[in-house]
Amino acid sequence: MKLFLDTANLQEIREVASWGILDGVTTNPTLCSRENVPFEKLVKEICDLVSGPVSVECVSTRAEEIVPEARKLNGLAPNIAVKIPVNLEGLKATRVLSAEGIKVNMTLVFSPSQALLAAKAGAAFVSPFIGRLDDISHHGMELVEQILTIYENYSFETEVIVASVRHPGHVVEAALLGAHIATVPYSVMEKLAKHPLTDIGIDRFLQDWKKVAGK
Ligand code: E4P
Does the active-site annotation cover 191? Predict the structure, then answer.
């Protein structure tokens, strides 16, 4: 399973890259708005820090505008994946861009039918937002399961990025379902490694080791 970091913060990316488990980054306009760095400079710096795909979102809303915007974003670095919201305009643009070999991450996916169309349009990735579904009392992970089944039924190569992750349980459930990727905020990424019994165990071993060292 690949783990992406869901952030536009350079420090967070540097830190998680140093753990040796980082496979890519996803950004969105909200995440970019939190950083005090000009947009294109920010994107290039993120792409220098990670060798895997870096998703950067288009903000145009009509296919004829999304396509040139996506081409421009794609030209910023060799590891860009262009994020496009999944609606009819986004699908039209994705068909054109994927035929040119540009990697598209269809985002804001909330239904299996949207994911089916995204795969048919040639998207390299789809991003179901499971946390936002959970927030409105739906079961986000059911959507992931449905998408994975549909993709397996028809051997689609589109990879599923489990997005809008809120806690480590989401990552574990995604892994159990066989999702290709989870994109995880920094705070959750840290929690993935933590367990109170590990901390207690280390403390106890260090205390006992002092007795050994004192002999
Ligand atoms: C994914 O690509 C999005 O950037 C992200 O996961 C959205 O998460 P949110 O629902 O916490 O904003």
Answer: no
